[in-house]
Design goal:
Layout lengths: L2 E12 L1 H8 L12 E7 L2 E7 L7 H9 L2 E9 L15 E5 L2 E8 L23 H13 L11 H16 L5 E5 L4 E4 L3 E3 L2 E3 L4 E5 L8 E2 L8 E5 L9 E2 L4 E6 L2 E7 L3
Antiparallel strand pairs: 1-4, 1-12, 1-13, 2-3, 2-4, 5-6, 6-7, 7-8, 8-15, 9-10, 11-13, 11-14, 15-16
């Protein structure tokens, strides 16, 4: 299955080590050679780089290693194609503008019924590629649109209510691990993934950091009071990653957990 990765921190963090490890799962050393992508938030905007080829063999990964890009929210994905051709438009994360900021989404799982399910209407959003993951993202943004019609951002609880219902319904269609960010908040929803050819939890793992330098995240030394959290499908280091429960949603802001809820399973 595809693999997801995200980081949320109090101060901009360089996640080169984690991106390198994730990339090693997208080519000769891993089962996900069909595309990859990584997005770095820059305030409300997004620096997004993605390709349709194996991450491990991409010169763009070397570029990221050399640049040491830093951000307070980073989202990455490596793809094993199950829906849609091997091309740029089908690589994740996906990004769209809503409410004057970029929103990003990455999904791991198969939910082909999302194309025909009337609960997942698109509103003013449309697919660029052919994947069920992008279709789900467009449907999520359609549901969130009414919250983003004012100058002020909607409350965390209002956003979480929409994401929770969406996650519950998407999970009915198949494995639905996903990451979603709106430049302020990072949402992580855990479902199931294949472990030794069996579909079962956990779908995501979480690692929290208070240290400036660790084996999994590299942080600018200019910030002495750093706090960061990492989310990944598969632990990317030997540290004590904690599995999330099936149906669990965690919401992070500035490197801290601000909401945690269980949806119906």
């Amino acid at each position: 299955m595809c693999e997801l990765f995200a980081m949320c921190s109090r101060h901009p963090a360089d996640v080169t080590i984690s991106i390198e490890e994730l990339a090693s799962h997208g080519g000769r050393a891993g089962p996900n050679p069909d595309g990859w992508g990584v997005g770095y938030y820059v305030e409300r905007d997004l620096r997004l780089l993605k390709e349709a080829g194996p991450a491990l063999e991409s010169p763009c990964i070397r570029f990221l290693e050399e640049r040491h890009l830093a951000s307070t929210i980073v989202m990455a994905h490596i793809r094993r194609a199950s829906e849609g051709a091997l091309k740029h438009a089908n690589s994740q994360p996906f990004a769209r503008e809503l409410g004057g900021r970029m929103h990003t989404f990455a999904h791991n799982g198969d939910v082909p019924a999302v194309f025909d399910d009337p609960r997942f209407s698109l509103g003013s959003f449309h697919n660029v590629g052919e994947t069920d993951s992008e279709r789900a993202f467009c449907a999520l943004l359609a549901r969130l649109t009414p919250l983003w019609t004012h100058d002020d951002p909607p409350t965390i609880d209002a956003r979480l209510d929409v994401v929770s219902v969406f996650a519950t319904e998407l999970r009915e269609l198949g494995a639905a691990n996903f990451l979603y960010a709106d430049s302020q908040l990072l949402f992580a929803h855990s479902d199931r993934r294949y472990w030794h050819d069996r579909l079962r939890p956990p779908g995501l793992h979480v690692l929290e950091h208070d240290a400036i330098h660790t084996a999994a995240v590299r942080v600018s030394s200019a910030h002495s009071h750093q706090k960061a959290v990492l989310i990944a499908s598969v632990p990317l280091s030997t540290e004590a990653w904690q599995p999330m429960r099936r149906g669990e949603i965690r919401v992070f802001e500035s490197g801290s957990l601000v909401r945690r809820t269980m949806t119906a399973t």
